[in-house]
């Protein structure tokens, strides 16, 4: 390869005209999807250890009611004995990776039971932002909204 071609290739890579990281992003998408599923499963069984691993320390967790919680507040609420999920799914998920951020949109459907046996169903839109921290995706922001 000539010196001129090498210089042109370096400039194209540096400018983003050639995406040398595409295979990594495809792998990242798979691990992001695995992290989303791990969060869903942790929510179903109230797995505090999984929440600690999956959530960033700077987490801001927004509910469709407008209430927002920190990581500690989210984990406390998610592991409360006053209610439990009967079913929970993330429907129609779409993921997009931009640098070290993973943007996820889905519909969260399910049913939960509160103390006294009352069962309530849910169908909210959810936007989640995940951040790659080291070799792990961590949830850094989440906002639900009424559909």
Word description of this protein:
By secondary structure, the chain is α+β, with helices and mostly antiparallel strands. The chain has one domain (21-146): Roll (Nuclear Transport Factor 2, Chain: A). The protein is built from four helices and six strands. The chain has a six-stranded mixed β-sheet with strand order 2-1-6-5-4-3. Helix 2 (22-45) packs antiparallel against helix 3. The longest helix is centred in the N-terminal third of the chain and has 24 residues, at 22-45. The radius of gyration is 19 Å and the shape is globular.
- Strand order in the sheet with the most strands: 2-1-6-5-4-3
Instruction: Tell me the strand percentage band.
Output: 35-45%
Output the structural class: alpha+beta
CATH topology: Nuclear Transport Factor 2, Chain: A
Descriptive keywords:
single chain; alpha+beta; Nuclear Transport Factor 2, Chain: A; 4 helices; 45% strand; globular
SSE topology sketch:
Elements lengths: L2 H13 L6 H24 L2 H7 E8 L5 E2 L1 H8 L4 E16 L2 E14 L4 E15 L2 E11 L1
Parallel strand pairs: 1-6
Antiparallel strand pairs: 1-2, 3-4, 4-5, 5-6
Helix pairs in contact: 2-3
